[in-house]
Amino acid sequence: MVEPGRQHPQPHGVKPTRSHFGEEGARSALIAAASTVVFVAAIVALVLTSDTWPKVRQQFFNWDDARTVWPAIWKGFQRNLWMFAVAEVFILAGSLVVAMVRSLRGPAFFPIRALATIYVDLFRGLPLYLVLILMGFGIPALDIDGVPNSVWFWGVTALVLSYSAYTAEVFRGAMDSVHESQRAAARSLGLTQVQTLWYAIVPQAVRNAIPALLNGLISLQKDVALVAVLGYREALREADIYKSRTFNYTGFVVAAVLFLIISVPLARFTDWYTERDRRRRQQRAV
Amino acid sequence: MNAPTKLAVRDVYKSFGDRAVLQGIDLAVSEHEVVCLIGSSGSGKSTLLRCIDLLESIDHGEIAIEGEVITAPGVNPNLVRRRIGIVFQSFNLFPHLNVLNNVTLAARRVHGVARADAEARARELLDRFGLGEKVEEYPDRLSGGQQQRVAIVRALMGDPDLLLLDEITSALDPELVGEVLGVIRGLAEAGLTMVLATHEMGFARDVATNVAFLDQGRVLELGPPDQVLRAPNEERTRRFLRRVIDAGRL
Asked: Is residue A60, in this structure, part of any structural domain at all?
């Protein structure tokens, strides 16, 4: 496939140009568009001419089923969004605390630093699916007084614990990338280690971490659907219930579209932000 | 000098890995004195200043301020640093804070001064150093000389007993050096005790009470600028000064 903006073979005697408006640019755009159309058409043709397509269409893309299953999926998806929002708030706050703890220096802080390291190693080392099952089924099964046994609660908790471990490392990396002299400047003014991190290092680190945090956000938005494994009736679970009843998979496609409606704009925004950030840095370097 | 000893550095050693940077430094600074540390790069000037501010731990020896040993175990370094101001070669202003917040951060968070009081004092100091117009600006909008003056004000906000200056003009364009040195000259005349590492020999001659020549992690020669810079006793000092003169810096 030809990518737009790439240089293409030039006619003899014409100097290569990167202009988007020149004859060459127009030609590039034309080639890109044509090849895209051909490529997509080929795939569509391949699918539509498949012997089993009518059956697949009936099972996955059935309009009547979509309309029947829609209210349940939509209600479930709103639950996904709510879990996503609640989890993200706790992830950002929790991971920042863990990252700060891991950035404290000196032997006095060894115990909590070690604790934070163990936590990060543990939860980064376990598949999220496994954490969900262990916490969602395991802890309520203990039946301890005062410990919630709500699937929602343990599902969100598992997401928070797992994602915070990753996000803490994002923050820590960003804090490490702030120049050491900033730490020295803050300490020299008499600020404590925690004050130094909070007032001098973290504000600069957060700015650097935003692209990575946005990527994490997109990832979490989808992984929220894993809570379905606990039987919680979010979008994916509703699609599954409908499938068990009717042997029709359209609900999954409906859910997929809903997830894409959220995650694609988020991805575009992340790209846009990262690019703007990159340009700003370049400007500052000049 | 009969003034009381402000800073005493006694037999201080410091290594980074197997690189010995300080190898038995002795230095005494009396109140109102300005001591200039000179010597080639790697002679230990910056490391000494960083050790005095407890930004580096020392391997051996002791450092005392007004007779109180600050390198003893159990001393809270945050309390020591409140009494010492330091200005770095590369300014090290906080890029996410404007001038006023750079200067008042420590007053508000460390010394517990109310924001209004801290800002009033900051504005007064910034005004005095010709930065009254720049209060709301962010560091990246200031020239190097302006940034360095802001850094000096930031260090002065805590009313330090001792001000340490680490080659504060080395990162400046030549035409900006004067404005920063002017500020330091004013502080010296006001009687602030200072220790400064510098490559500006002319300035050292003007402003220093004593000049210390550091060589391979030791104070090789210490005395009034006229003696150390014009008639040094040590061959190494003479060689260093000749190189400086050849480079046109004295």
From this structure: no
Residue A5's pLDDT band (boundaries 50, 70, 90)?
A: very low
Residues A77 and A230: their CA atoms lie apart, in Å, by 16
Residue A92: inside a domain = yes
Fold of B1-83+162-250: Rossmann fold (3.40.50)
What is the value of pTM for the model shown?
0.85
pLDDT (tens digit, 9 = 90+) per residue, A165-199? 999 999 999 999 999 999 999 999 999 999 999 99
What CATH number is attached to the domain comprising A91?
A: 1.10.3720.10
- Taking the Cβ of residue B55 and every Cβ of chain A, the question of whether any pair is shorter than 8 Å is answered with yes
Q: Considering the domain boundaries, does residue A271 fall inside one?
A: no
Its domain, for residue A98, covers 83-232
User: Distances in Å between the alpha carbon of B61 and those of A25, A95, A277?
Assistant: 71, 41, 48
* B41/B85: higher pLDDT: B85
Nearest CA in chain B to A283: B140
- Which pair of tokens denotes residue B156? 């002065």
Q: Which of B108, B97, B91 is nearest to B157 (CA)?
A: B108
Number of domains forming the structure of chain A: 1
Any idea where the domains of chain B sit in the sequence?
A: 1-83+162-250, 93-159
- On whether any CB of chain B is under 8 Å from the CB of A281, the answer is no
Query: Could you tell me which chain B residue has the CA closest to the CA of A207?
Result: B96
Give the number of beta-carbon pairs within 8 Å between A and B.
58
Q: Does B10 touch chain A (CB under 8 A)?
A: no
> Which stretches does DSSP call E strand in B31-135?
34-38, 60-65, 68-69, 84-87
